Amino acid sequence: MIFSAQKLLLALVLGLFMVPLHLQATTPLNRHFIQVATPSTATSNPTASTVPNKNKPKSKATPKKSTKQAMNPKLRSTGSSALRIEPLYTPNIIENMLQMPTPEVVKASSVLGSRSFLQRGCLPHRDTIAQLLESLGIIDQEFEDIFNKQVPGFFKVSVGVCLPFAISQDSNRKVQAFSILSNAKKERDSVVTTIYRSQTTDIFLVDSQTLATGFENYLEVIIDLNDLIIYKANKATTSIPPELIWELGSLVKELYPKDPDAQERFARVVYDAGNKDKWAQVISFEILDKSQKNVLASAFWIDRDDIPGGFFTALGTELEQTFWISPLNYTRISRGVGQYGPRVLKSIANKKNSKTNRPMRSYSNYSGHQGIDFSAPQGTPIYAVANGKIIQYGPMAAYGNLVIVEHPGNYKTYYAHLSAFNPELQLGSEVRRGLEIGYVGSTGRSTGPHLHFEIRKNNLYLNPLSNMLELDLWTLRPSDQPLLTKSIVLFSSQMNTQ
User: Fold this and answer.
1) Which residues pair with 107 in a beta bridge?
2) What pTM, to 2 d.p., does this model score?
3) Which pLDDT tens digits describe the chain residue by residue (498 residues)?
4) Among residues 438, 449, 487, 467, which one has the least CA distance to residue 164?
5) Backbone angles phi, psi at 120, to 5 degrees
6) Which of 188, 229, 314, 404 has its CA 20 to 30 A from that of 416?
7) 83 and 75 in contact (C-beta within 8 Å)?
């Protein structure tokens, strides 16, 4: 009897440990899932979101000049069952928007700090702007008056069940930016309207754009997610410009790192194919489940005038820091910012010890390390971390072979000790993010093959690994919020969200 009781106790103890493990193994992944709330619950305080795992992206391709033909918004066949490419705005996409199920408000967590947070959803056609604000718990009569005055008859020209919107508000429940897409009978006539608060005058400004203009080179691609993770060039590059593959692979690893079921899911990419005067650019990126009906994670590009553009999630979370400190696909950091080099023994000329009458020697350190050293094999490709212009391209003292790229906002990035340069580049060349600029080496003052990487602003060293550091290019500034709300409304698939 005692023996049976002991076995029973042992079984209970094992059960306590086994059940959580079982649940953990069968519970769906919850990385960056967007919380869904009904209008009745949307007034609750936003909850903190989980910061994505900062796994470094691994490049699988060398971006090179694209040989693609001019891309017009026409349906194209890629010859692969895993791929689908079509113009961004097509009747089936608009139809999906018009036939959405019971409208719901998708509420984002408070990831913009205490200043603001984002919400998005689909406004029932029968509702007014006042009803929307009330359902979201926003009290802003000034914004309501501006909307009704600046966009008269907005709801009268719209059709369908509901209208996609995204809104940003501050901690005082005041609107900072609001974007909404009208669904006209003719898709070309649909209008995205953004009303945002000026950061200089504190008054509301209005921006409107029809879908008939500005999107001529925008294309939508559905691709097997596994093709991006392991880079199946024969599939991925049949529909996506090759210079975007490094960026897309990095987005996958940032939004959905180490997902064991990645091969069963898909990625939806909207990109600007560019032209002779403009680089191709990923505009939005969504990870879909295998049914292609649910969005698991998403990122949207915003193009800023004063500083480099960046990717942000629908929650407003930045993804840029990972890009800016990942110039190659090796992630082992052998030496960080501020770490000193080895102690060195040096003689002091013309000085002698008074007791021994021997030359004096002292130990001293190198100056503090002003960058990050990435250990990597000789010849490993190095990629530009952002768009910019090459202002140094050659040997420079202890740096050895050095490339310096100047970026908007008085930022510069340094790539040192290179074994060789990309022969297609030269001083003054314009480069885009993900372009191969050189190869790991050990030139200059170096103890072995590695990349010495620096970020400077206004010629001052920055430590990108510091948790206390938040650069303006890595955070969603108030002036960026209307750009993000507009991007979400325009380029989100408007599918069901988890």
Assistant:
1) 119
2) 0.67
3) 555 555 555 555 444 444 333 323 322 222 222 232 223 333 333 333 333 343 434 434 444 443 333 333 322 323 333 344 444 544 333 334 333 333 333 333 333 333 457 888 888 877 788 888 888 888 889 998 888 887 766 767 677 778 889 999 888 888 999 999 887 667 777 888 999 999 888 899 999 888 877 787 889 888 887 777 655 544 544 568 877 887 888 888 888 776 666 667 888 999 998 887 888 899 999 988 888 888 888 999 998 888 888 999 988 888 887 788 888 876 566 554 444 443 333 444 445 555 555 554 443 334 456 788 888 999 999 999 989 999 999 999 999 999 999 999 899 999 999 999 999 999 999 998 888 999 999 999 988 899 999 999 898 888 877 654 557 777 888 889 999 999 999 998 865 433
4) 487
5) -145, 160
6) 229
7) no
Q: Are strands 450-457 and 105-107 parallel, antiparallel or unpaired?
A: unpaired
What residue type is 62 in one-letter code?
T
Domains of the chain as residue ranges with CATH: 31-325+471-498 (no CATH), 340-367 (no CATH), 371-462 (2.70.70.10)
CA distance 214 to 157: 21
Distance CA 344, CA 325 (A): 30
Q: Give just the sign of the alpha carbon dihedral 291, 52, 254, 405.
A: positive
| DSSP letter assigned to residue 429 | -
Q: What is the dihedral of CA 339, 435, 63, 289, to 10 degrees?
A: 60
Please, what is the Cα angle at 156 between 174 and 102, to 5 degrees?
A: 70
For residue 195, the cross-strand partners are: 178, 206
The DSSP bridge pattern shows strands 191-197 and 496-497 to be unpaired
Query: In sequence order, what DSSP letters do the residues of 57-108 get, joined into one string?
Result: P---S------PPPP-SS-B--S-TT-EEEESS-HHHHHHHHT-SS--EEE-
Q: Buried b / exposed e across 446-469, counting CB within 10 Å, b at 16+? A: beebbbbbbbbbeeeebbbeeeee
